[in-house]
């Protein structure tokens, strides 16, 4: 069974480490803020100028002036700071973010990512994605494994305009957790109830499958 958006975010949260500074992109990545382990000291950064982002607010906690990069209302944690976007991008470009979580349209076996343009369709645009993929060594891409018509998004070569080249090492889809190395996709984990065969059929790029592929645990 394919993972929900919330389950993808939960699995990403397992990759967090104590003391990390983490940037969360628009879409599924923003949900990761809701699943940071309570005992873990992690500072979430938003490119619009917030360091110390918390989970989404409950009813009665909403501050319309406190938003993330996707213009969703959020909370802040103790020790949070607010600044302009120029300072935020200086942090990103300076390599001060330990982990970046991004969405994407396509990823290929060479670690290339396409995330900002689909010809003929109105898309929000680049945003801070190009800076984020250039300024971070540790990036996790979250997305569905295939489009609604069954077309794979994990390709031998990206077909859409690239956001970054050779920068992606890990992809978490609704079907699998995959690492990119040596010009191949390597299957690490599969979603509960999803077969290896399903993943292979929906992966267009070369996929290395070990003898045993564990199910993700939540």
UniProtKB/TrEMBL annotation:
Q: Which SMART domains match?
A: CoA_trans
Q: Which UniProt keywords apply?
A: Transferase
Taken from the record, one Pfam family name reads CoA_trans
- Supply one GO molecular-function term: transferase activity
InterPro entries, from UniProt? 3-oxoacid_CoA-transf_B, CoA_trans_fam_I, CoA_transf_AS, NagB/RpiA_transferase-like
Q: Which Gene3D superfamilies match?
A: Glutaconate Coenzyme A-transferase
Tagged with keyword Lyase: no
Entry keyword Transferase? yes
Which family would the database say this protein is a member of?
A: Belongs to the 3-oxoacid CoA-transferase subunit B family.
Q: What is this protein called?
A: Dehydrocarnitine CoA transferase subunit B
